Amino acid sequence: MGTHQQTRPRRLLLCLDGVPHQLIEQAKSRGLFDAFGAPTRLLSPFPTMTNVALSAMLGATPPAGYESLYFDRKAKELRGGIGKYLGRRTPDKVPSSYMDELDYQEPLPFEFLIYVAPEKIWRADMQRFRERFRAAPQNRDYFAFLKATDGLLHAQGPARLGIALESLDKILREIQSYCGNETEIVMFSDHGMNLEENRRVPLASTLRQRGFQVVIPAFGLCSYAALYCQDENQIPEIARASVEVTGVDFAVYKDGSDAVVESDRGQARIEYQPATECYRYVKMTGDPLELGKFQSEFETDAHWFEQTAGHRYPDALANIYKSIFTHRVKHTGDILLSMKDGYYYGWSPFGRFVRLAATHGNALQPSSNAFLMSTHRQLPGYVRADDARALLR
Ligand SMILES: [Zn+2]
To answer: How far is the CA of 278 from the centre of ligand 1 (A)?
Structure first.
């Protein structure tokens, strides 16, 4: 499928859902994946969710919402949800055009079964990938998406993922031995994870008690939330009420062409000048993004990236600004919330039978730092999701 077959080796592109940069570095230090160069920090866009991230990384069409359950702004109702997982993967269940590029992805029901029978599921997923790849034509690129790693981490944590990575390492060594240097393997993830036990944030109930009319799709157990407000004029007030809920780190919403960032550490604004591609961070009542030591004058996007790619909130200004001003999804929330690590929002019945060993979704480093590495190329230290396509395809 790649368009550069004449000028570069064939490429095996392998995406491991939800594997943080930190865990790949640890695996490499244990001697796994030693044919690969140093892993880049691939910065997953906020909210750090699979369909948001992969559509950005592959330059594909935006998905309808952040997850399969989403709020349709025109119809003013919740759409999608659990039905997505039932039956075959029909076109209405394909969230973004990146899926058209996949040569291998796990069968649909696996996405849930990983919580019930994680060992069986990831082993079956990896073996199936191994067999399909072996049977594929050797003269064209191959793109596989292993999704079981995400569920394995959520449900079991990093130690069990380590075992899965050992199996994958064996499979990749075998692939390298029969494909040789003619095939470049590019391995990456869509987003990272925080690796600590997570508690649920009582968000919807708190806002409802305060009388706000707001829809907050609750699906996966993740560290972000998207709010859709019935009355636009209430947005600032609802954002302020949200950040008072224990576990909410910050809220972001639009005000004209500025992004307002609200937190219990005060409020700031992100201003953007499209003509010069410059951002400015203006502290109104505080410093929610902890950018205090950085200049508060207009600086180029490239300058900010260089200064803040390794920050606690990676690439904070562009990333958080774009989360509400670009079409990461078709139905952008009025307010996006980023939780502190250790907290999630999601569907409560699901939360009752799953112990959540790790999660993702927020704008902090552990979730934002996905990885990217190659057997053939040295890559820059940090790469934005929006710039990843040129390195992937
Ligand atoms: Zn996940």
So the answer is: 33
The Å distance, Cα 322 to ligand 1 centre, comes to 22
Q: Are residues 104 and 166 in the same domain?
A: yes
Asked, for residue 388, whether it belongs to a domain, the answer is yes
What pLDDT sits at residue 352? 65
311 with 381, same domain: the answer is no
Burial level of 265, CB count in 10 A (0-12/13-18/19+)? middle
Same domain for 172 and 264, yes or no, is no
Same domain, 319 and 385: no
Residue 73, exposed/middle/buried by CB under 10 A (0-12, 13-18, 19+)?
A: middle
Spacing, Cα 109 to ligand 1 middle (Å)? 15
192 C-alpha to ligand 1 centroid (Å): 9
How far does the centroid of ligand 1 lie from the alpha carbon of residue 48, in Å? 9
CATH code, domain carrying 369: 3.40.720.10
Q: How far is the CA of 297 from the centre of ligand 1 (A)?
A: 37
Between CA 26 and CA 192 the distance in angstroms is 14
Name the strand (E) or helix (H) holding 370.
strand 369-374
> Do residues 169 and 218 both lie within one domain?
no
| One domain, residues 251 and 334 | yes
Containing domain of residue 129, as a range? 10-61+96-195+364-392
Give pTM, 2 decimals. 0.93
Residue 5's pLDDT is: 47
The Å distance, Cα 286 to ligand 1 centre, comes to 32
pLDDT of 23 over the 60 cut: yes
Q: Compute, in angstroms, the gap from residue 359 CA to the centroid of ligand 1.
A: 6
Q: Which of 9, 7, 4, 11 is nearest to 136 (CA)?
A: 11
Rounded distance from Cα 285 to ligand 1 centre (Å):
34
**374 occurs within a structural domain:** yes
pLDDT for 257-290, tens place per residue?
A: 999 999 999 999 999 999 999 999 999 999 999 9
Mode of pairing for the β-strands spanning 224-229 and 199-200: unpaired
Distance (Å) from CA 132 to ligand 1 centroid: 25
Check whether residue 106 and residue 49 sit in a common domain. Answer: yes
Tally the domains of the chain.
2
